[in-house]
Amino acid sequence: MKTDIQIAQESNELPIEEIANKVGLNSNDLELYGHDKAKINWNAINQIKKNNHLGKLILVTSISPTPAGEGKSTITIGLGDAINNQLHKKTMIALREPSMGPVFGLKGGATGGGMAQILPMEDINLHFTGDMHALTSAIDTLAALVDNYIYQDNSLKIDPERILIKRGLDVNDRSLRKITIGQGSKFNGIEHKSSFAITVANELMAILCLANDIDDLKKRIGNILVAYSTDNHPVFVKDLGFQGAIAALLSTALKPNLVQTIEHTPVFVHGGPFANIAHGANSIIATNLALHLSDYTLTEAGFGSDLGGQKFMDFVSKHLDKKPDLSVVVATVRALKYQAEETTENLDKENLDALKQGFKNLERHMNNMRNYNIPVVVLINKFASDTDQELSLLKSLIKEQGIKTEVVNYHDVGSKGGIEAAQMVVDEANKEKENIQFTYSDSDDLKTKIQKVAEKVYHAKKVEYSDKAEEKIHNLINLNKDKLPIIIAKTQYSFTDNKKILGAPSNFILHVKNIELKNGAGFIVVSTGHILDMPGLPKHPAALDIDVDNNGKISGLF
């Protein structure tokens, strides 16, 4: 089969105005970026918000990711195409923007695969409409303004060694994790330690994805906790007066980007916070607009149900105009066998015992989503190596749990690779819902929230806190910020904080190493295990396979 980029480049894109027309938008609502992508302008956004129509919201999540591959984005896109083009129901998809760090590193892009892709694939995975560059500029401008404030005046007595914000770069660069700036004479600034986080792990990315409009964006930026003073007082961006300038840098990036699938289903691609560090969902603006414009909106939560799924249900959904009507859990035979075998070497060989053992991981993810009191279905992403016996066994194991399932092959066939699955999803999404049951209450204190997620979602028996974490909790109590929602930073590969422990472990200890207030975003990051907000490049980065010819045609992007 052809590579993803070959399939994408040979596809027939429609003018973006035609895609917009499918959901009632016209050329006056768009700000064009070439012929195949556009932003929605503020006049249109404000008008759409007044529309009382709200379609069904379908959340796509997954089992724990493995090197064997799961294909969650491919399933989200293919399922959206099937509902739109095979069932002929007005459908939109809302996805995150890829970070260029993983694109040139190890993980790859985020535009789907095979016949279930979003276009233009190269642009979306690289510079797109410039949102990531705007964010990077805003992050580094804020850092420069804070350093300049300390250098020029510092009437608030900011302690240079207690600056909390990081610089940003949308590149995997381990050498920038810890740096010293202002070296040399005082002419170069005040010497102090600093650090970089990848752009998508910065609080400004979370703020961009949570803000409802520019006023909300400006308010959230103003609420960012910048540093502490030498006399231990918190200093916020609004104390320094920089929120207007930073919001101005992000005002265009706040508008959602409209693109299309290979089969011409409308897609919003906007915002991209990591799910193992931040909340892992595309922008609130994009999802809400899709809900008002379509009858069925599909969106994706990063990584497995223990990360993106949990954060979407307990945090993101409370910012949306409606809660999810259905959760789709994506699984593959190969990935479940990997959960048992812990190697990719023999995944092409039939192994029913390994599949049975690995099924425990899927069972945990299914029950995680079912605990929210919404319908759950499983889509099995078919690979060529899957045997009939393996697929039959997996379907029977899922059905024994009282959950509906279908095998799909959107990657190879496109929307026709799962018409029955699309109908099943639509039928389940239209069922009458009870009230969602959240993992914790808003009124719970910080440790109670952490304990409930650890026990109910991860199946830990206990949570242990480092001295540093205990000190941070004490500080939050003093700031009266200890009741905010939590975002747990954890490895995506395991329910524990140790990426090597696969399957569905229970009765382990979750180790909380640090607590960070993201006051502008409105949540507390709880760091467990060994989580890096600035990834490094692998020995063989994807960049080695990427090239461009003299006609500007890019190759090697998967």
UniProtKB/TrEMBL annotation:
Pfam families: FTHFS (PF01268). Keywords: ATP-binding, Ligase, Nucleotide-binding, One-carbon metabolism. The keyword Nucleotide-binding applies. Coiled coil: none annotated. It is an enzyme of class 6 (ligase). InterPro entries: Formate_THF_ligase, P-loop_NTPase. SUPFAM superfamilies: P-loop containing nucleoside triphosphate hydrolases (SSF52540). Pathway: One-carbon metabolism; tetrahydrofolate interconversion. One of its GO terms (biological process) is tetrahydrofolate interconversion. ATP binds at residues 66-73. It catalyses: (6S)-5,6,7,8-tetrahydrofolate + formate + ATP = (6R)-10-formyltetrahydrofolate + ADP + phosphate. Its EC number is 6.3.4.3. It comes from the Bacteria. Transmembrane segments: none annotated. One of its GO terms (molecular function) is ATP binding. Belongs to the formate--tetrahydrofolate ligase family. This is Formate--tetrahydrofolate ligase. It comes from Candidatus Lactobacillus pullistercoris.
